[in-house]
């Protein structure tokens, strides 16, 4: 059973293409060698891969075979690409269009206005005014968006602050209901110096205490008892009073 017909077309897969190239190249060089040996022919094969790598085979000398080939072929005609007469026109049109665009851009920047007429200057002014209006509208829109975002952040901060104040009030109510110790109160009150110390005293003590300030602070630590303790104290005092009255 013979092999099926192979569709000759470009192999899209790179790995498959490389494997097929290697196999077909080896087979081609083998056939060229067999042709040279069997038929006593001068054979030269030159192969360039798609990556630019050179593969060659010659039955004798490659340079001699190539020189013989050029002698038999005759003078080689150098083929010059045909020039399309329309291409220079297209290039000239593109150059003119580029010059017009460059001149218009410079006019929008306020340059090269000497060759413009009154109508052209009026059209340019109107175009610039429309551009400025578009720029202002876009700027105002962005500013309004930023303002709305700032207000939203401010509202979120206010809500967060209110939630924190509510938590503080809840904590205060919790301490009042459970009768736990209230926070400590520390009072720093200035106390005047003793008259005897201010009036009397040795000079050495004055020199030793010269670095002290004019006021001496007396720190008082006040502890508030809980409501349960107060109730116990009131109960004990009431029992004592009743016992005294009975006696």
UniProtKB/TrEMBL annotation:
Domain K-box: 84-174
MADS-box domain segment(s): 1-61
Alphabetized Pfam families for the sequence: K-box, SRF-TF
The species this protein was found in: Olea europaea subsp. europaea
GO annotation (BP), single: positive regulation of transcription by RNA polymerase II
Listed SUPFAM superfamilies: SRF-like
Name of the molecule in the record: Agamous-like MADS-box AGL15
Compartments it resides in: Nucleus
Record SMART domains: MADS
Classification via InterPro entries: MADS-box/MEF2_TF (IPR050142), MEF2-like_N (IPR033896), TF_Kbox (IPR002487), TF_MADSbox (IPR002100), TF_MADSbox_sf (IPR036879)
Stretches that traverse the bilayer: none
GO terms assigned for molecular function: DNA-binding transcription factor activity; protein dimerization activity; RNA polymerase II transcription regulatory region sequence-specific DNA binding
Cellular component GO terms held in the UniProt record: nucleus
Region (Disordered): 186-211
Keywords, alphabetical: DNA-binding, Nucleus, Transcription, Transcription regulation
């Amino acid at each position: 059973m013979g092999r099926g017909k192979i569709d000759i077309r470009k192999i899209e897969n790179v790995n498959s293409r490389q494997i097929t190239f290697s196999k077909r190249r080896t087979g081609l060089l083998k056939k060229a060698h067999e042709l040279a040996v069997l038929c006593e022919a001068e054979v030269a094969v030159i192969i360039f891969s798609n990556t630019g790598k050179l593969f060659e085979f010659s039955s004798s000398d490659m340079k001699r075979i190539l020189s013989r080939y050029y002698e038999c072929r005759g003078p080689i005609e150098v083929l010059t690409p045909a020039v399309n007469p329309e291409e220079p026109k297209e290039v000239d049109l593109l150059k003119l269009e580029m010059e017009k665009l460059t001149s218009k851009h410079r006019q929008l920047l306020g340059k090269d206005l000497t060759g413009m007429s009154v109508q052209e200057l009026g059209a340019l002014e109107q175009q610039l005014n429309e551009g400025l209006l578009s720029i202002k509208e876009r700027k105002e829109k962005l500013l309004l968006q930023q303002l709305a975002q700032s207000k939203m952040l401010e509202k979120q901060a206010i809500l967060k602050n209110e939630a924190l104040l509510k938590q503080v009030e809840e904590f205060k109510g919790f301490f009042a209901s459970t009768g736990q110790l209230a926070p400590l109160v520390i009072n720093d009150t200035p106390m005047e110096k003793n008259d005897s110390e201010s009036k009397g005293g040795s000079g050495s003590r004055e020199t030793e205490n010269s670095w002290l300030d004019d006021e001496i602070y007396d720190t008082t630590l006040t502890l508030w008892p809980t409501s349960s303790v107060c109730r116990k104290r009131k109960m004990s005092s009431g029992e004592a009073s009743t016992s005294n009255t009975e006696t």
